[in-house]
Structures are given as C-alpha cells and as structure tokens.
C-alpha cells in the first residue's frame, strides 16, 4: 500500500503578486463536504493565531509542514495517508532563493479554500449574522420592514377569511351527466318559468352534441321530456326542443331508435304545417333530417306517416322556398343513400346494376308516383344560383327514375339556357377566382345532367 500521495504542483496566485508579504495559496481539497469544512475551519481558528501562519521554509529535503503553516506555491508536496502528516520540498533544480525571508521579518501566508474561511472571516460572518437576526432593539431598517409587513397583512386576507368566503362554493367541476340532470329537472318542474326552460333547452343542445351525453339524456328520461315539449303551445319551447332532438339524434342510432319509439317523427311532421311559425318549422325540419339520415327504419317511417306529402305541400307556398330547398336537399341525400344501398346489394348478388333500379328504391318510387319528377325542375327558374345548384343535384339523382318525365317536360331546354347563361358569367368573372370557380361547378353539373338525359 502506498504511504504517500503526490498531489499536483500548486500554481502561484495573482493576488500574491499584487500584495508583497501576503501570499494566497489555493487548496486542492475541493471534495470535502461543507459541514466537515466548517468544523475544520472552526478548529483551525481556535488552535492557531495569525502569527502561527508563518512561512514554510523549503529545502531540497522533505520537511514536515506544521499545522496552520502557510505553504508557498511551486513546491513538491506529499501527504502520509496513514499519519496524515504533510511534507514539502523544493522542486528538482530549484535553489530556493525566492523562498528565503528578508531579515527577521516573517512573510505570512493565508490558506484559501473554496469551502474553508479564515478566523477573521468567521468572526465577521458571525457578527453580521447576529446583527441581522439577533439584535436586541429594532433598528430603523427593521421598523420599516415591520411596517411593510403590517401593510401587507392589511392588504391581503388571511387564510381563515378566504376559507370562510369559500364555504358552500363547489370548487369541483361537475360531470356532464350531473349538469344534464339539473337541466332535465328544470324542464320537469312545474315551478320552472318560460325563461328557465328556454335556458335549460339551450344548454342541453350544447351538451347532446356528444354521443354519450345524448344517450344519457335518453336514459334518464330527458329525451321524452324534450319530445313532449315539441308539442308545447309556446313556439320558443317547441323550436328549442326540436333543436335539442336534432342535435341529439344526429349520427346517433341509439337516440334515433329511441326517438321513433317516443313518436317524435309524427310530432315533427305536424310542426312543418303551414300554420306554424317559420322558426319552428326550420328547427323541426332540422330534427327530422337528423332523425332519418343514415337510418333506414326512420326513412320507412317517414313515408308511412306521409312525410313526402307534407314536403310536397311546400311547393304551394311561394314564401317557403328556403324551407323547400332544405327539404329537397334532404330527399337528395336519402335517395343517394338508398340507390347506393341497392347497387351494392345487386353487386354482391352478381346482378346487373346498370339497368332500371327505381322500383327497388322506396323513396324514388314514391317520388315518381306523386309527380316530383315534374315539380322539382320548375325550381330551375329561380334567380338564386344556390337554389339552382341544389335542384341540379336533386335532378341528377332523380334522373334514374325520372328520365322520361324530364324529357317530356323539356328539362333539356332549361339546362341549355342555364349553360349559356353561366358561360357568359364565366367570361365576365374570369378575374374573380372565387366566382369563376363556382360558375365552373355549376357548368359541370349542367353538362353532366344533359349527357345523362340525352
């Protein structure tokens, strides 16, 4: 086992060059824990006075370094690991002249460490600590600090005051089902006034867009209450209740089935009658659309309750064109679903899908029977391009069963007129990208339909 550890040669400090007679030597014991360093510093202060920190006079031979004795830089230093004794000597080739003392004057050295402080530093630190934290009488600074604390205590409330104010306040976010149950309770209470029920329906409409919330509304009996309110004599309640049903049933088969069992469909068809306010009729059509889209059973019930006849009456109301266009759009979507379903079924059976299939499409069959093939093309005379677009889309789908009726009604002439009109518009709006793009879409619809009917 090695008895001596030979450390690195100490580098001279710039501070020593600036102050003759005082040399600062940096210690290499940086790995010692802070607590041990603090104890060591206290022991050194107690055992050695400043006069004890005399210069170590090096020679060419190893000499023991006294405790607390300053070590000049540039020496070869070693320590006995068993006894802890430090020894030092001159480096090889060093004559030691620069370490010799002048006369009887002792050159003092102070050992500097990153973690160990001198006796004077320790005294100053303890004095500063006592002055700051253990003074007997308050100073001017402490009085100002006390005043600022008093001011802060007056400005900010205590914890007890805050807790008292928060008593009874529900700080936890309620689950959706809890909120829905509260609004359903409002709808079910005879003491709730009109504005409270209107507010509850408005809030429910927001929540039931989520499929799970809509299902929960049915499970707790809220859907039945909403459908009941659709028959209210208050138009505001009837329209809002229809709106809630439409949002709940949209792409939600479970709610669609539940609504059919609760006889929502006949109620919605009644709300489409001419004597109802337009706001109520629009919300009822929205709910009806959500109830039967992508839901074959609902579509069958729609025909069973003469829904197509009710829609057909809209052609007789000049002021109801916006509602009629929405109804035609719904019929177009339902026809598209049913035609695609029939063709997929025929393909799976290996049958020809290019032939006549109108007899296999329930809605198209009824529309042909009731004269829709002649009614719908009449809307091409409207002045609104948006309406013309919706009508052209409907004619595209209806052409499967209405081709002969379209030819007899000279639909081709109307289509050719529209084509020329839009070609002219396209040349005039070629610099406006949005308008020209929309006109190109309309031209495409007309051209495709003309090919289909030729």
TrEMBL record:
GO terms for biological process: protein transport. Its main location: endoplasmic reticulum. Residues 141-217 form the Nucleotide exchange factor Fes1 domain. Residues 1-16 form the signal peptide. GO terms for molecular function: adenyl-nucleotide exchange factor activity. It comes from the Eukaryota. Pfam families: Fes1. SUPFAM superfamilies: ARM repeat. Keywords: Endoplasmic reticulum, Glycoprotein, Protein transport, Signal, Translocation, Transport. Coiled coil: none annotated. GO terms for cellular component: endoplasmic reticulum lumen. It is found in: Endoplasmic reticulum lumen. Belongs to the SIL1 family. Required for protein translocation and folding in the endoplasmic reticulum (ER). Functions as a nucleotide exchange factor for the ER lumenal chaperone HSPA5. This is Nucleotide exchange factor SIL1.
């Amino acid at each position: 086992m090695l008895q001596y550890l030979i450390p690195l040669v100490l580098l001279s400090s710039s501070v020593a060059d600036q102050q003759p007679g005082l040399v600062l030597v940096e210690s290499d014991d940086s790995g010692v824990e802070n607590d041990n360093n603090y104890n060591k510093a206290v022991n050194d202060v107690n055992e050695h006075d400043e006069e004890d920190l005399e210069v170590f006079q090096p020679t060419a031979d190893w000499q023991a370094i006294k405790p607390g004795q300053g070590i000049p830089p540039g020496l070869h230093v070693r320590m006995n690991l068993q006894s802890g004794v430090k020894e030092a000597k001159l480096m090889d080739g060093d004559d030691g002249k620069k370490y010799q003392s002048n006369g009887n004057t002792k050159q003092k050295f102070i050992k500097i460490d990153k973690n160990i402080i001198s006796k004077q530093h320790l005294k100053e630190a303890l004095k500063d600590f006592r002055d700051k934290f253990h003074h007997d009488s308050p100073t001017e600074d402490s009085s100002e600090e006390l005043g600022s604390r008093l001011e802060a205590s007056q400005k900010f409330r205590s914890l007890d005051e805050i807790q008292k104010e928060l008593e009874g306040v529900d700080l936890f976010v309620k689950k959706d089902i809890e909120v829905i149950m509260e609004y359903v309770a409002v709808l079910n209470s005879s003491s709730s006034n009109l504005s409270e029920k209107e507010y509850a329906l408005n809030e429910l409409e927001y929540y039931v867009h989520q499929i799970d919330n809509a299902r929960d509304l049915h499970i707790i009996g809220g859907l039945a209450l909403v459908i009941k309110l659709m028959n209210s004599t208050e138009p505001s309640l009837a329209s809002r209740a229809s709106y809630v049903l439409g949002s709940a049933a949209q792409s939600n088969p479970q709610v669609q089935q539940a609504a059919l069992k609760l006889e929502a469909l006949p109620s919605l068809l009644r709300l489409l009658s001419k004597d109802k306010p337009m706001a109520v009729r629009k919300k009822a059509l929205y709910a009806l659309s959500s109830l039967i889209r992508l839901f074959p059973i609902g579509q069958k019930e729609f025909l069973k309750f003469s829904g197509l006849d009710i829609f057909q009456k809209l052609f007789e109301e000049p002021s109801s064109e916006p509602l009629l266009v929405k109804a035609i759009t719904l019929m177009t979507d339902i026809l598209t679903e049913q035609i695609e379903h029939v063709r997929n079924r025929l393909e799976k059976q290996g049958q020809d899908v290019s032939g006549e299939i109108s007899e296999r499409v329930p809605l198209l069959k009824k529309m042909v029977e009731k004269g829709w093939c002649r009614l719908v093309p009449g809307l091409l005379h409207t002045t609104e391009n948006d309406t013309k677009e919706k009508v052209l889309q409907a004619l595209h789908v209806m052409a499967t069963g209405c081709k002969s009726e379209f030819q007899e009604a000279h639909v081709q002439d109307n289509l050719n007129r529209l084509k020329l009109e839009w070609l002219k518009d396209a040349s005039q709006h070629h610099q406006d990208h949005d308008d020209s793009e929309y006109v190109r879409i309309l031209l495409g619809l007309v051209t495709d339909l003309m090919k289909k009917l030729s």
